[in-house]
Design goal:
With 105 residues, this protein is mainly beta. The chain contains no helices and ten strands. The protein has a domain of 72 residues: SH3 type barrels (Roll), CATH 2.30.30.30.
Length: 105
Amino acid sequence: MQRIKKGDEVIVIAGRDKGKRGTVLRRVDAEHVVVEGVNRVKKHQRPNPMKGVTGGIVDLDKPIHVSNVALFNPATKKADRAGVKALDDGRRVRVFKANGEQVDV
C-alpha cells in the first residue's frame, strides 16, 4: 500500500522548498510525486500552432522524491509518518503514527 497518494496534503521536509505545504497532484513512479507549488521551475516553451500552444516562459511543477515529503496531520498541524493497519473487516487503512487516527476518513 502506498503511504503517500494522489490528493494527500503533504509538507516538504528536505530540500530547497523545505516547509512548504501542498497537495499531491500525481505520482510519477513508485518513488516520485508532483506536489502543487513545490519544486517549481521556469521552462522556455516554443510555440506550436498545430497543438494551439503559445510560446513563452511557463512555470512547471517538477517531481520530488517521496522521502523528502511527509503527510500533514491536521490534528497536530505537523508532518507525520504513515503506517498501515488492518481493520476487523479485513480492510487495510493508512493511519498516522503520532496519534493512530485514520488518514482517509
